[in-house]
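Input record, target 12 of the design panel.
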């Protein structure tokens, strides 16, 4: 439950002492990065002094207030490295009860500098990714009854490019309370786009290969996809460390765009699901001709499109 300063005398006193002087709550975030000396030096000196003076009970009281109080409290926690508020900040981050405070919670958790805090932030991002992926996975069976595998998978591949562009815009923007919800939404979109590409893959392989070759086809797809990850995972880490996150996002986005455009170019648009055709070089009684009928030059039948030794383009 959110407390309001005008309804709580103790909270009101803390707001006047720590939150509103020189409109501190508005300067915590992107405005802080744009400050210059001597204003920056004076602001940080006062913030560090208050972070050392405020008690744990007073911080807990501020964390019961609105976004201004919670934002300021989280920064005071970050500056003073009060790790006892780790669980409370994690709860508030998950609850997202107020706007403009989420990034401050992340700043505080990141300031603790432990694997435990990093794991909390990463788990939230991966949870958003999984949520987006699951939603698309549950919807796709009905969609694929009306839309081709090609349409879904190519749209997913191109959507990844748009998601990378959105991620680049967020990482390039100044900090603000909107960034954490935006990042979670982007991670959910990543999950949705990847699910659009990966979920129909098994269906596509089964439709495109005969039963005796499916094991090899699935193994080849697995090896190819993991080879791509083997290249891009280290690339992302190396670029992020050496050139910054913005460069890593641009590079991976360019790779996603190139792959999507190549798929559009190389995947024919006129491949029908069921193809009627004629075999002219198979002997009578061949197992593949079990449902075929005599044609002008051989045996005719129809089945799902296959790419194998018996069916050349």
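The sequence produced for target 12 reads:
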């Amino acid at each position: 439950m959110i407390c309001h300063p005008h309804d709580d005398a103790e909270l009101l006193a803390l707001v006047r002492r720590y939150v509103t002087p020189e409109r501190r709550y508005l300067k915590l975030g992107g405005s802080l990065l744009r400050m210059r000396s001597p204003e920056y030096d004076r602001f940080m000196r006062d913030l560090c002094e208050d972070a050392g003076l405020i008690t744990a009970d007073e911080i807990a009281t501020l964390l019961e207030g609105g976004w201004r109080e919670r934002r300021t409290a989280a920064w005071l926690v970050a500056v003073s490295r009060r790790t006892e508020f780790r669980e409370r900040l994690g709860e508030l981050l998950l609850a997202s009860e107020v706007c403009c405070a989420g990034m401050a919670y992340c700043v505080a958790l990141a300031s603790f500098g432990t694997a435990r805090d990093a794991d909390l932030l990463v788990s939230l991002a991966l949870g958003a990714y999984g949520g987006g992926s699951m939603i698309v996975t549950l919807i796709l069976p009905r969609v694929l009854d009306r839309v081709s595998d090609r349409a879904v998978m190519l749209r997913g591949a191109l959507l990844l490019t748009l998601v990378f562009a959105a991620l680049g815009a967020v990482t390039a923007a100044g900090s603000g309370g909107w960034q954490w919800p935006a990042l979670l939404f982007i991670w959910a979109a990543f999950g949705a786009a990847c699910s659009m590409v990966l979920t129909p893959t098994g269906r596509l392989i089964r439709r495109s290969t005969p039963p005796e070759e499916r094991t090899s086809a699935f193994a080849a797809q697995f090896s190819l996809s993991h080879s791509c990850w083997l290249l891009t995972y280290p690339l992302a880490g190396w670029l992020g460390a050496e050139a910054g996150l913005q460069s890593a996002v641009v590079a991976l986005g360019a790779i996603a765009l190139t792959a999507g455009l190549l798929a559009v170019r190389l995947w024919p648009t006129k491949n029908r699901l069921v193809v009627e055709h004629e075999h002219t070089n198979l002997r009578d009684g061949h197992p593949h001709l079990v449902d075929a009928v005599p044609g002008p030059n051989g045996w005719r039948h129809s089945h799902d499109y296959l790419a194998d030794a018996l069916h050349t383009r």
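The mean pLDDT is 80.
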